[in-house]
Amino acid sequence: MDIWKSKVLPKIKLVFVKSAGKKAAAAAELVKSFDESKEGINGEFQEKKADLLPKVVEIYESAPAPLKLLIKERSKVSGIKKNSAAITKFFEELAKIEFPGAKQVSDGISKVGPVLLSGPIFSTFEKVSTLLPVAAEEATATKEAPAATEEAAAVEEKKEEAAAAAAEKKEEAEQKKEETTTPAPAAAETAPPADAAAAAAEPTAEAAPAAEAAPEAEAAAAPAAAEAEPAKAEEETPKA
């Protein structure tokens, strides 16, 4: 027992430490190589997106639920250790369809394991998530939202124009109605009333017979005046 503790166990620990150190160094090289090739990986991904989409969705659908959540969220490095077997298989499947960068990551996983390659793994998961149906629907909804807003604004504008036109027509109809019901202007007011015209005509009618009778009266009075003058003259002559 003392030999185990004093000689065997320390040697085993030393082997693991050396092994861990070698893995860490190898992992660092793999991460550096992946980062340097990111630009080429991104360009290749953009070119092959349309062809990759149905294949990636099929691989994703066959993955276990915890791995699906990790692919979408990509927030916990501890999730890589918990799902190391599923991640290893997932990258093997991606490498088969020639997903950009997947072969490089898959080879690295086989050498140092997935835990030390969290950066390349999450970078690949991010590209995978853009091809999933939910992400595609969200992108479509984002594009359609401004169009829907513009359409709603156009509909609202048409409603306002229709309401304004209806109000204008209503106002015109009311004006026409007022014009038809308003009495004719003051021609009737300026004309003298019928009673006044009759009253004005009556004195003229009465004056006409009077004017006609005046010469007759004068003619009748003239002989009488002539007869009266000799009689007066006789009275004024003195008796002898």
**Gyration radius, rounded:** 62 Å
Level of helix content?
over 70%
Main sheet properties: none
Give the overall shape: rod-shaped
Order of helices and strands, N to C? HHHHHHHHHH
The separation of the N and C termini measures 219 Å
Mean pLDDT across all amino acids:
73
Judged by helices, strands and strand pairing, the structural class is mainly alpha
Q: Which residues sit in consecutive blocks of at least 5 with pLDDT less than 50?
A: 13-17, 135-142, 186-194, 196-215, 222-226, 228-233, 235-240
Q: What is the percentage of strand-forming residues?
A: under 5%
Strand elements, count: 0
Number of helices: 10
Structure explained in plain terms:
The protein is mainly alpha-helical and 240 residues long. It has a domain at 23-138. It has ten helices and no strands. It has helices at residues 2-36, 38-61, 65-73, 78-82, 84-96, 102-112, 118-129, 133-181, 187-190, 194-236. α1 runs antiparallel to α6. It starts with a helix and ends with a helix. Mean pLDDT is 73; it is low at 13-17, 135-142, 186-194, 196-215, 222-226, 228-233 and 235-240.
Q: Layout of helices and strands, plus pairs?
A:
Blueprint: H1 2-36, H2 38-61, H3 65-73, H4 78-82, H5 84-96, H6 102-112, H7 118-129, H8 133-181, H9 187-190, H10 194-236
Helix pairs in contact: 1-6, 5-6
Keywords:
single chain, 240 residues, mainly alpha, 85% helix, rod-shaped, disordered C terminus
Summarize the structure.
The chain has 240 residues and is mostly helical.
